[in-house]
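We close this part of the discussion by returning to an individual protein. The sequence in question and its C-alpha cells are set out directly beneath this paragraph:
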Amino acid sequence: MKEEYKYVWEKSRNLYRVVIDHPTYDKESQKTIHHYVTVGKAKEKNGEIEFGAKYLLEHQGKISQQQKPQVPVAKETVLCGERIVLDEAARRTGLKRILTSTVGKENAEKILQLAYYWNCTGAALCDSAAWFKERGFPELSSPRISELMRVLTEEYCSSFIRKWVQKKASSRKICYDITSVSTYASDIDIAEYGYNRDHERWLKQVNLAMVADQETHMPLAFREIRGSVNDASTLVNTVSELIAYDAKPEGLVMDRGFWTESNISYLAENGVKCMIPVPSKLSWSKKLIKEMKARVYENSPYVDADDEATYWYTVYDPRKEGRRVWAHLFYSPRLESDRKDSFMRKYHRCKQELMDESPIESHQRFYDEYFELSTRGRGGKLHVKEKYHMDEILANENFGYWILYTDFEKDALQALLTYRDRNFIEVGFDDMKGSTDGRRLRVHSTDAVYGRLFLQFCSQILRTELRTMTETFRKETRKYATSPRDMLYRMRSLTKIRYKGRYKDQYVTLSKGQRLILEDIGIDLDLNSDSDTADTEALINSDHA
C-alpha cells in the first residue's frame, strides 16, 4: 500500500509537518483509530519534503528518488543505555564533580570509565577494550590502566577522601567492617597470610577496611591493611583518620570482632559512641546472661518478617562505668537451635579427630577446653576423656543469648534494628566481589595496590547509588529492574546513532522497560518520537475545514 503524506501547518514553527496515517480498526468500538507518524517537514503544502533522519534509515526504499534528499551519513553506532544511567548516578552522588576537583578532569574521566565497566560487566580490566569501543569511550589500554593505578596513591587521593567524607557522612552514624582481597602476586609487601573471609587460606591477602553511612549506606572511606593484621587492632587508626578528616562520627556500629577493652576506652575518651555485640566468652558477659536470662520474657517479643521472635531485656551501666551505657540482652529460640546444632556437630567432630589421632591445629583451643588425653596399657593406647558431662556443658553454654553493648541507643528494639541494618556493608562487600571483580587484587606491585582499591571504592559508590535508584522505582518499573544488575542489563541495548555534519544524534526506539526506568530516574531523551496522535488529527481536521 502506497503511503500518503499529509501536510499539517504548524503556525509556531512557520512550516508544514509531514505525517503518515496508520489507521487501525477497533472491533469493540467499531471505529477507525488513526495513528500519525511524523516523517519530516516542508516549507509549503504539497512541496518537497525534508525527511527526518530516523525515518530515512527505516524507510529508504519506500521514498521516491524525486522526493529523497541526501541521506545523512552515520558516523558511528554506540550502545549508550548503561552510560546514561551511570552518568546520572555519578551526577547525583557528586562523584564526578569531586573527582574532577581533586584528581583532575582527565583522571576523573578514566576512573569513572573503569568504574562503569566494572558495574556493567564485573570482568577483569584487561578485557575492557571491546566494551569501551562499543560504547564510544576513549581507548584505555592495559598499560595506561596500570599507570593510572600507580598515580592514584594515598597521598594523591587524600583530598578526595576528605571532601567525600565531609559531604556524605550525613547521619554521622557509620558502620565499620573489614574484608579480605586475595592475590596470587608474591611481591606485594602488604599481602600476607591471615584470616581469609573467602576461605582461601592458601592465598595471601590484603585487608580492605571500609566505613559507610548508616542511613544512606553510602561508602565514605577505605584503608588498605596488611593481610595478617587482626580486625580489632585497626579500629584506632581508622577513627583517627576520620577525626583528621574533620568527620568524627557520632556513633560507630561494628561486629564483635572489634571488641577489646582498649578500643572501647579509646572511643569513650574521644567522644565517639558505639554499638557492638559483646563476645560471649567474656566473664562479665557470661555473668550478666546467667543473672538476667529469665527476665527476657518480661517484655513482649519482637517478631520479624520471617515470623521469628526475639526476646529482650535492658541493663543500664552493666559494668558500673559511671556513664550512660546500656547492655541489651537478647534471646532467640531460632538462634539457640542453630548454635546448639553447630556446637554439637563440632564437639563430636573434634572428639573423633582426637580418637583418630589426626588433630587439626585450628581446633586446639576447643580440644583443650572440652577434652583430656591420656595413654593406657603397655602399648600406650590413646584415650580421650570428656572433661564435662553433656548436661553440664549445655547448662553453661548460653545458646541463643547475646548482648548488644551501646552508649547511643537506650531502646532495645531500636538498637536491634540498627544493628541488623549494618548488614548492608557486608552485602556491599559481597556485591563488590561478585559483581565488580573485587575478589582478586589483580595487581603485581605494591605501588598499585591503593590505586586498585580506590577504583574499587569509586565503583562501589556508583553501585550503592544504583541500588538506591531501584529501591525508589514504581511497582510497574520494578517488573523490569529490581537491582543494579537488572537495570544495567535492561538498558544496555539502547543505541545512539551519531551522524557526520549538522545532523543531530538519533536514539533508537525505547523498549517499555527502558522508558519506565528513564522516567523513574528523571531522564528525558530527545528521541524525535511520534507526535501526539490526537493533536495531529485535530490539526488535520482544522486544515481540511
About this structure: Residues 335-396 form one domain. Confidence is low (pLDDT under 50) at residues 528-532.
